[in-house]
Amino acid sequence: MAHSTLDLPSAASAEGEAPVTPHNNQDECDSTKEAEVVGKIDEADDVADAREPEQKKHKPLSTPTNAQPSSPSTTDLQALSWDGDHCGDHVRFSNKTNTMETCILDPEQWNCVLASQAASTFRVRLDNVGRGGDLWVGYCKKDSFVPNGSTRGRFCQILRASAANVTGDETSHPFEDGDVLTVTHHRANHTILFQKNGQDIGIEYEHVTDEPRYPAVVTNSDRVSMTLL
Asked: What are the Cα distances from residue 135, in Å, to 78, 124, 201, 219?
């Protein structure tokens, strides 16, 4: 999230682990620096030529009035569901596990949920953006997933559009109930892009390694409900 300097809210930590934060817009932490919560590069430190992932806010391209926004075709979308074996303690499922919902009594309890398989693009409908806390949606590597905490990856923070003066920034954007978020991993050019209702929202991660990535949600919000489309 340039990327390693963003201040994000801290969360509860498991015994013996570093504090949980979705500073989690880094894929992996540096195992040789236990005091650091956030890894500084996308891959393990022993890769000599590894570059720090860059993320930038870019201006959405103008679209002719008679043209449709650039969105993945239906043939690009895989049949996905949420994975009941890779989820936090306060997540429940419905609609044949296509819909997830959080039920969190303790705001310090982070919950994550992973999709059933890796995908180059996915869409989720934000049925309910939840109450309080934070909500992040994006990609992570399967071995970076932690059900109740420090899942790391490439995320967009979902801001509640109903709040006053909500505009978003390089890693966040306002959403309302019913909005559809599309996330695409362009493996050929090493980027991850985000769209709302088919429109570019200007969030892009660059220099993303060419590895399978799984749709993921990280939140400590109550009553978040989200459906994979």
From this structure: 23, 13, 17, 4
pLDDT (tens digit, 9 = 90+) per residue, 141-150?
999 899 887 7
pTM for the structure as a whole: 0.70
Per the structure block, which two tokens stand in for 53?
């992932």
Domains of the chain (ranges; CATH) run: 54-58+78-228 (2.60.120.920)
**Selection from 135, 122, 98 nearest residue 195 by Cα:** 122
Q: What is the CA radius of gyration of the chain?
A: 17
Continuous segment of H or E residues that includes residue 204: strand 199-206
Q: How far is CA 152 from CA 21, 107, 198, in A?
A: 9, 19, 26
- Residue carrying the six token digits 């969105």: 71
Residues in the chain: 229
